[in-house]
């Protein structure tokens, strides 16, 4: 029973549950009256919000996609900031971030389905590795602009963050290991496996703007 009253464990559970709030699904349902879990890629992320809602209202689709990115990123950033503010050790900050991304990708509210974890992971890393994450965002933007392929842009940005982290911080501050970052990256890459297969086959769709 001590396990269930441990503050760290309670925070991890809260992070998973809050991470699981499907903002893209909720926004599309309320404002566009569409179920993005039944259309497009069935993901709850901004790309699928844009793709599905655009069929009804292009301007609304862009607004909801932006709102989805913002809210999903805030989930990650705010929870890590709270962990820091409450005085938890750095290892807990990382674990809170990982649990938030895990909750987003495998939401208990959607029968353990969810999004790809990119925006939520970005929010987490903006707090923990701000310089590396800004580099990743620049790479993401450049790839997205030139290729119009969301998954390729996201994976390129993630790779940029990892490479930059090894260059800037041979050992991550406080935790002395890149293991937490690599675990976070593994979750995001794993969720992108179908996209990676389509990229290799040359079948990955583009997002029209």
Automatic annotation (TrEMBL):
<keyword id="KW-0012">Acyltransferase</keyword>
<keyword id="KW-1003">Cell membrane</keyword>
<comment type="subunit">
    <text>Probably interacts with PlsX.</text>
</comment>
<comment type="function">
    <text>Catalyzes the transfer of an acyl group from acyl-phosphate (acyl-PO(4)) to glycerol-3-phosphate (G3P) to form lysophosphatidic acid (LPA). This enzyme utilizes acyl-phosphate as fatty acyl donor, but not acyl-CoA or acyl-ACP.</text>
</comment>
<comment type="pathway">
    <text>Lipid metabolism; phospholipid metabolism.</text>
</comment>
<keyword id="KW-1133">Transmembrane helix</keyword>
<feature type="transmembrane region" description="Helical">
    <location>
        <begin position="149"/>
        <end position="169"/>
    </location>
</feature>
<feature type="transmembrane region" description="Helical">
    <location>
        <begin position="92"/>
        <end position="112"/>
    </location>
</feature>
<keyword id="KW-0594">Phospholipid biosynthesis</keyword>
<comment type="similarity">
    <text>Belongs to the PlsY family.</text>
</comment>
<dbReference type="InterPro" id="IPR003811">
    <property type="entry name" value="G3P_acylTferase_PlsY"/>
</dbReference>
<feature type="transmembrane region" description="Helical">
    <location>
        <begin position="124"/>
        <end position="143"/>
    </location>
</feature>
<keyword id="KW-0472">Membrane</keyword>
<feature type="transmembrane region" description="Helical">
    <location>
        <begin position="64"/>
        <end position="86"/>
    </location>
</feature>
<keyword id="KW-0812">Transmembrane</keyword>
<dbReference type="Pfam" id="PF02660">
    <property type="entry name" value="G3P_acyltransf"/>
</dbReference>
<feature type="transmembrane region" description="Helical">
    <location>
        <begin position="12"/>
        <end position="32"/>
    </location>
</feature>
<dbReference type="GO" id="GO:0008654">
    <property type="term" value="P:phospholipid biosynthetic process"/>
</dbReference>
<keyword id="KW-0443">Lipid metabolism</keyword>
<protein>
    <recommendedName>
        <fullName>Glycerol-3-phosphate acyltransferase</fullName>
        <ecNumber>2.3.1.275</ecNumber>
    </recommendedName>
</protein>
<keyword id="KW-1208">Phospholipid metabolism</keyword>
<dbReference type="GO" id="GO:0043772">
    <property type="term" value="F:acyl-phosphate glycerol-3-phosphate acyltransferase activity"/>
</dbReference>
<keyword id="KW-0444">Lipid biosynthesis</keyword>
<keyword id="KW-0808">Transferase</keyword>
<dbReference type="GO" id="GO:0005886">
    <property type="term" value="C:plasma membrane"/>
</dbReference>
């Amino acid at each position: 029973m001590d396990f269930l009253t441990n503050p760290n464990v309670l925070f991890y559970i809260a992070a998973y549950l809050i991470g699981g709030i499907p903002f893209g699904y909720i926004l599309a349902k309320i404002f566009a009256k569409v179920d993005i879990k039944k259309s497009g890629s069935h993901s709850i992320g901004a790309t699928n919000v844009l793709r599905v809602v655009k069929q009804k209202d292009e301007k609304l689709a862009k607004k909801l996609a932006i709102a989805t990115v913002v809210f999903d990123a805030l989930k990650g950033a705010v929870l890590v900031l709270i962990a820091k503010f409450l005085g938890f050790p750095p290892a807990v900050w990382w674990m809170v971030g990982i649990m938030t991304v895990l909750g987003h990708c495998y939401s208990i509210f959607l029968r353990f389905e969810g999004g790809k974890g990119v925006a939520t992971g970005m929010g987490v890393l903006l707090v923990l590795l701000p310089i590396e994450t800004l580099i990743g965002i620049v790479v993401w933007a450049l790839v997205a602009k030139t290729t119009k392929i969301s998954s390729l842009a996201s994976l390129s940005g993630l790779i940029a963050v990892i490479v930059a982290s090894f260059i800037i911080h041979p050992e991550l501050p406080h935790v002395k290991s890149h293991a937490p970052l690599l675990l976070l990256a593994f979750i995001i890459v794993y969720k992108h496996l179908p996209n990676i297969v389509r990229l290799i086959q040359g079948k990955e769709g583009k997002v029209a703007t």
